[in-house]
Design a protein that fits this description.
- The chain is α/β, with parallel strands linked by helices and 434 residues long.
- The protein folds into two domains: 2-32 and 302-429, Beta Barrel (Lyase, Ornithine Decarboxylase, Chain A, domain 1); 41-299, TIM Barrel.
- It has twelve helices and 22 strands.
- The protein has helices spanning 24-31, 40-58, 76-82, 92-100, 117-126, 136-149, 188-197, 218-239, 265-283, 296-299, 333-337, 426-430; strands spanning 2-4, 6-11, 17-19, 22-23, 35-39, 62-67, 86-89, 108-110, 130-133, 153-160, 182-183, 202-208, 245-247, 289-292, 303-314, 320-324, 343-345, 355-360, 369-376, 384-388, 409-413, 416-421.
- The chain binds ligand LLP.
- Ligand LLP binds next to helix 10 and helix 11.
């Protein structure tokens, strides 16, 4: 059987593309388009692959914490929990979703460079595992909240390792000029550590960094891991404390286009593992618990989006625009980062990819594209398009611009497809209009 993009997508004799054995043309007929479709088995494979790689490198003292921002909806959390995966949240809304899905709050940690008092209270009150502090003022706010309740809260704080990740500037975060975290070189991070330590109700447990997202080179991860562990040991020495957790972030790049070669999860984790073990030996300290926070790499490849082609505009001496019934409202990543996507005509996936086409959305914006200059089967009105690798930062960044309702998420599991997030209705759109 021919596969395309990943071994979960197969192309049948009738030329239709299937995900985990389910014909996506039929799925489109049954549920309508646009629709996000996800493979539960692929999600689980990713959970297991990360867990295996982490255990191999760090033994039992490690955690895989899924970064909820990549895709946050209730259906996901029971799957994560059953695979032993923890999660991070960055807002009251993500926290609420995880809690409503009965995810163990002890398995959550809370990020963000400007958490509100209400969010901090919500986190403390639900018994969240830890809070990653990211502002001096936040230390005081959290201390006051915990003092009022006479409870202790486990905290870490975010550090800038000063590593520049080779990715789009908007999603690079580890460099010194960043709104996130405290710099090591300028002494800010050590000042923050001292400030946290002065608080009576905050249990200072470790440090965190995240260098950026969709990072391909192993070098950035290796350098950040080394810098972070060295600084971890420096804090322990200078402040005479012991910490037990080092979060090295997420950011592992994934394959969007056929030419992308992001490497395997194993390569990335092994690279960090090697550096960290070497450093531990040099420092004469056993490694603390090592935590990674993959978002995109956990969910991206497990999802695709189905659209129906409405029209094809072949401009002489110009581009060929294939207009679909979705676009930047369900996938704003071209508009934001000029990100490109791969696609096939789902009902003729076996046909030669012989035409250069641009997939355009339906919003009143010229920048509303899904893919630019992509070589794939010549499309015509009524065709179903399957766009790959839309599991991350699509649903979670979707909007109702032009009052377009958001698509459903359909989950395939054991040969059955079901709606796990329903399609928005027009009534949903005016629900909050008073
Ligand atoms: N941990 C922290 C603290 C983060 O800020 C992020 C992502 C992650 C983990 C997960 O990174 P990942 O493994 O997903 O690369 N909207 C952008 C991506 C923004 C990522 C922000 N932080 C996009 O669509 O490319």
């Amino acid at each position: 059987m021919k596969t395309y993009y990943s071994e979960h997508f197969t192309i049948g004799e009738n030329g239709h593309i299937s995900l985990d054995g389910l014909d996506l043309v039929k799925v489109a007929e049954e549920f309508g388009t646009p629709a996000y479709v996800m493979s539960e088995s692929h999600l689980r494979e990713n959970c297991r692959a990360f867990t295996r790689a982490m255990r191999r490198n760090f033994g039992e003292r490690c955690k895989v914490a899924y970064a909820s921002k990549a895709l946050c909806a209730r259906f996901l959390y029971p799957i994560l929990a059953s695979e032993g995966i923890h999660a991070d949240v960055v807002s009251g809304g993500e926290l609420y979703t995880a809690l409503k899905a009965e995810f163990d709050p002890k398995h959550l940690h809370f990020h963000g460079n400007n958490k509100t008092v209400a969010e901090l209270e919500m986190a403390v009150d639900c018994g969240i595992g830890s809070i990653i502090l990211d502002a001096m003022e936040e230390v005081d706010r959290l201390e006051a909240i915990c003092a009022a309740r006479d409870i202790h809260q486990r905290v870490l704080f975010r550090v800038k390792p000063g590593v520049h990740a080779d990715t789009h500037a908007f999603i690079s975060t580890g460099q010194n000029d960043s709104k996130f975290g405290f710099g090591i070189q300028d002494g800010e991070a050590m000042r923050m550590a001292r400030h946290i330590l002065e608080q009576e109700h905050l249990d200072f447990s470790g440090i965190h960094c995240h260098i950026g997202s969709q990072v391909f080179s192993l070098d950035g991860f290796a350098r950040a891991a080394k810098i972070m562990f060295d600084f971890f040991c420096q804090i322990e020495r200078e402040l005479h404390i012991t910490m037990d957790e080092l979060i090295v972030g997420g950011g592992f790049g994934v394959k969007y286009m056929p030419e992308d070669e992001p490497g395997t999860f194993d390569e990335k984790i092994d690279t960090m593992g090697k550096v960290l073990r070497e450093e531990a030996e040099k420092q004469g300290r056993v490694l603390p618990e090592i935590v990674i926070e993959p978002g995109r790499s956990m969910v991206c490849a497990a999802g695709c989006t189905l659209y129906t082609v409405g029209s094809v505009r072949d401009i002489r001496d110009g581009r060929c625009y294939v207009s679909v019934d979705g676009g930047m409202t369900d996938n704003p990543r071209f508009a934001l980062y000029q990100a490109n996507y791969d696609a096939v005509v789902a009902n003729r996936a076996a046909a030669p990819r012989d035409k250069l086409q641009t997939i355009a959305g339906r919003c009143c914006e010229s920048g509303d594209l899904v893919a630019r200059d992509l070589q794939f089967q010549a499309a015509k009105a009524g065709d179903i398009l399957c766009v790959f690798a839309t599991g991350a930062y699509n649903f979670s960044m979707a909007s109702n611009y032009n009052r377009v309702p958001r698509p459903p998420i359909l989950l395939i599991c054991d040969g059955v497809v079901r709606e796990v997030v329903r399609r928005e209705t027009y009534e949903d759109l005016i629900h909050n209009d008073l």
